[in-house]
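Changelog note: in this version the structure field was regenerated for every chain. One regenerated record is shown below for reference.
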Amino acid sequence: MAKVDIKRFAYLSALNGSIVVISLALYLLFLDVVFPYIDFSLLLRGEALIVFGLQKLSGIPVTLDGTTFHYSMVSEKDFYIELIPECLGVAEILLFLIMLAIFRGVGRDAKIRGAVIFVPIIFIENILRLAVLYPMAVWLGVDMMWSVHFVIWYYGQFAFLMLLFALWYLILGRSDLSASITLSRRAAPKHPVGGKGGKESHKGHRGRKG
């Protein structure tokens, strides 16, 4: 049975735990400081068209003006939602990819497969999060919808990322990490020491006469 390298296990646990904590700080910093200085207009238009098409197929009374959705509501005649860079899900996808890249003890193949599988999930979840804002406003009221939306966007998205990251680890990364913290036994030599020499000594005696 393979033995665990305790020192390496403690090192990787501390390092990867620190990665998660630092990632949260970088996520919040990126949203509050970096985003306002980047032009996401093209991505915003593309995402707006996707959300608009999804809502139209759902029968929601919506019109799209650039990146602003206008809705017909009985209680709120001028109810509208404007997409901003924070709505894109770029920060969440970037954060997930960074955590995959710098997570220690897991091979490259598991990281690539994690990106291929889970990045589309993050994208789809973000689209659905935006598409349900109008139904939430109808059910809960506009003010409550904005409150719930803020909590989901600011805290729920990170929690969702951590859930996906945990799933990636359990499904794809755990076996690699387990292998990296085990001490493999050295294989015993196939031939006893001096075995080959013994054969050579016998060869040396061949051909002697009398």
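Spot check on this record: The beta strands are 3-4, 62-65, 68-71, 80-82, 182-183. Residues 142-180 form the longest helix (39 residues).
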